[in-house]
Each structure stands twice: as structure tokens, then as C-alpha cells.
Write a structure and sequence with these properties.
Length: 398
């Protein structure tokens, strides 16, 4: 039986499947047996191990990648030096997930949408350069579908101007650029461990930073804005009181409750040990995908920058393909191949923008093309050769 036939019989090509085995369930049971379910020792251990993996000094775990974006942006407004102010302009790519953008609106910042590169799906560097103005105070780089941005060029564009660089790396854990983990090129970077991502803790997210002040602000914002979780000597209040009764309920920042569970962290520690192998398998799948799709002539594929961790495989219909996206999606569905739009497409077309302070820099030509002609299929932490063979065969039918 061919690999394609095997895939068709086994249910086609799903976007994602579970990467858990008995080790994750044993970790859950360890937490259940402990009786400690909210943020505690497992979270602290995971944070230390995660920081070591990505190469940052600090990691702050939260309940989702969206919450990670929220407190990262919030923290930028509470720094002693160089804090963002309401009305400051933050440059963002026009293609990303909604919770890349929402924290900027929620903190009164002005979004500047710029086009993406149709090949890499990340910032169009000429569009980014054109968008930078005297009002630019930050650039939020999004590493899309596992693919790093060209941070050398972004740093060159920033130069010596007082512009903060931060990263939404929720889709790109394990990606590297010039030997360095994405999510660590800016002042801070965010990560997600949702079910379909590179590692899965059910729900979960992390903010990584090597800035001590920012790390302490994040600890405070994560849990009610109180000082309880800060070190005795810290960059938010200086020195805490020696009286725990007094200190436990001192509130100094307008924070949230986005704390993670011990269950998520315990699973995360297991998944983190598996992560290098997960990334290796995803890259092997990508190599097979690129080879299998090399002879087709209706889709453009994502061009890798640095070393992608290949969240999924994008397919962008060419102008001369002679077929529309709805037909492709329907054909894939009939063959058991799950697909989705490329993230949220051109976000700047959404009605929610009426609530936002924003401007659009230049034309969003590539973002519009991705919005109308793009889709992606999944990548996973297991051998997908059979599924990719099925995909290639269906594409040939098209």
C-alpha cells in the first residue's frame, strides 16, 4: 500500500494532533497528588528551564500567548526610562493574529500597519523602512508560521533611534536567526503553548526577556499588580517590607490575573525536554514538503529566513493558477486535508478597526493577496510523509 493510500485510509491530513504520551499524563498526576494546582513550584521550574532553552535571563509564564502579548505591551508603559506613552506609534505587520494588535489599542497606542513580504510572510523591509517616522516608538515584529524576520536588517533600520523592538513569537518557538532563538532579539518576546503549537500545555504562554526591570514588572502585572511575587529587592518598589502580612496585599500596578496552572507547567517541563526533537521532525517534514511540492505550479511557498521552526506550510495561489481559493479549500476538505487561512489575513480590513487608533503606511498589496489567495496546512511533531504525499497528489489533481 502506498503512503498516500495509507493516509487516505487513516483519515487524511489533520492540522494538528496530540504530542502527549504517558510522561505528560504522569506529570499531571504528580500535580494532582501534590494538591497544589495554581502557580507554584512547577511554574517556577518551567520558567527557569524555558529561559535556559531560549537563551534569555528571565521567563514569565502566563495562561496563554494572548495574555503574554497583553502583559508585554503593558510592561512597556511602566518602565522607568523609555516608557511608551498613549498615542505613541507602534509599527506592526498587517498579517498576524488579533491579539498581536489588541493590547496596543487597549493601552492607547497608535498602530501603524505595514505590508508584508509575499515570500517570507514577515515584514516587507522596504515597507517597514518607509513607515518609520519621528513618531515611531516601537516595532512589534511577528515571526509568522515559524519563520524568523531578518533582525539584522531591522536593527539597521532602527539604527540609533529610540525605538523599542519587541517580538510576537507565538508561532515560532524553536526558530533561529544567525544562531539565536527568535523571541530574544527584542527587549521582550512572547510565546504560546496552545494545542497546535510547537509544544503544548493545553493553554499557556511565556514572555521572555533579559531586562531585569521588565521581568519584575511582568511578575507584578501577571498577578493583580501586587508585590507578593517580586524579589525582596526589585526594580518596581526597591525593597519590600519584611512583614509578609503587610507586603502580601500591596498593589502597585494595575495588573491582571493571568497566572498559569501548575498542571500546565508540569506538562510544559516534559514538552520542553522533547522540544529539540519536535523541531527536528518539523524541519524534516518541511524538507519533504518542499521537495514534494517542487513540481507544482499553482502555489507560491513560504521562503525560509534563518532556520524556521515551520509552524505550518503556507500555500499562496499564483495569479495565473486558474483556480480560486474556495475551490482549493473545498477540494482539500473532500480529500480529508484540513486547511485554514494564513493566520487572520489582512487584519486591517476588519470592522474592529473602528475602535482603534491606527494608520496604514503605504499599500497593503501583499497582505491583501494573502488574505484572498492564501491558506495553510499543518505541520506536526511526527512523520508527515504520508500526509504530504496525499497533499501533493491532490494538488496535482487541481
Amino acid at each position: 500500500m502506498t503512503t498516500s493510500a495509507a493516509s487516505e485510509r487513516s483519515g487524511g491530513y489533520p492540522l494538528a494532533t496530540s504530542s502527549w504520551d504517558e510522561r505528560e499524563y504522569a506529570a499531571l498526576q504528580r500535580v494532582i497528588d501534590s494538591g497544589q494546582f495554581t502557580m507554584g513550584a512547577e511554574v517556577a521550574a518551567f520558567e527557569s528551564e524555558f529561559a535556559a532553552y531560549v537563551g534569555s535571563q528571565y521567563a514569565v509564564m502566563v495562561n496563554s500567548g494572548s495574555s503574554a502579548n497583553l502583559i508585554m505591551i503593558a510592561a512597556l508603559l511602566y518602565r522607568d526610562q523609555g516608557a511608551l506613552q498613549p498615542g505613541d506609534e507602534v509599527i506592526v505587520p498587517a498579517v498576524s493574529w488579533p491579539t498581536t494588535y489588541y493590547p496596543l489599542q487597549q493601552y492607547g497606542l497608535r498602530l501603524v500597519f505595514v505590508d508584508i513580504d509575499q515570500q517570507t510572510l514577515n515584514f516587507s523591509l522596504p515597507a517597514l523602512e518607509a513607515a518609520i517616522s519621528d513618531n515611531t516608538r516601537a516595532i512589534l515584529a511577528v515571526n509568522l508560521l515559524g519563520n524568523p524576520n531578518d533582525f539584522t536588517e531591522i536593527r539597521r533600520l532602527i539604527g540609533d533611534r529610540p525605538i523599542l523592538l519587541v517580538e510576537d513569537n507565538c508561532e515560532s518557538l524553536g526558530a533561529t536567526f544567525e544562531g539565536r532563538q527568535t523571541g530574544t532579539f527584542g527587549l521582550a518576546g512572547t510565546f504560546s503553548s496552545f494545542f497546535s503549537h510547537h509544544m503544548s500545555t493545553m493553554e499557556g504562554g511565556v514572555v521572555a526577556t533579559s531586562d531585569e526591570e521588565l521581568a519584575h514588572i511582568l511578575l507584578c502585572l501577571r498577578a493583580h499588580g501586587w508585590t507578593r511575587n517580586l524579589p525582596a529587592v526589585n526594580r518596581v518598589t526597591g525593597r519590600k517590607s519584611d512583614d509578609p502580612f503587610e507586603e502580601s496585599f500591596k498593589f502597585v500596578l494595575p495588573g491582571y490575573n493571568v497566572r498559569p496552572l501548575e498542571l500546565e507547567a508540569a506538562v510544559g517541563r516534559v514538552q520542553l525536554e522533547k522540544l529539540p526533537r519536535f523541531i527536528e521532525v518539523r524541519r524534516a517534514n518541511a524538507a519533504y514538503f518542499l521537495d514534494a511540492m517542487a513540481s507544482q505550479d499553482i502555489f507560491d511557498l513560504q521562503r525560509e529566513i534563518g532556520s524556521s521552526s515551520w509552524f505550518g506550510f503556507s500555500l499562496l495561489l499564483r495569479a495565473d493558477a486558474g483556480i480560486d481559493r474556495s475551490t482549493v479549500a473545498r477540494t482539500f476538505a473532500n480529500a480529508g486535508i484540513e486547511c485554514r487561512p494564513i493566520v487572520a489575513g489582512n487584519f486591517a480590513k476588519n470592522p474592529v478597526l473602528r475602535f482603534m487608533d491606527y494608520r496604514i503606511s503605504g499599500e497593503l498589496t501583499a497582505a491583501e493577496r494573502v488574505d484572498s489567495h492564501g491558506l495553510f496546512v499543518g505541520n506536526q511533531e511526527r512523520d508527515l510523509r504520508a500526509e504530504i504525499d496525499l497533499l501533493a497528489k491532490v494538488v496535482q489533481r487541481l
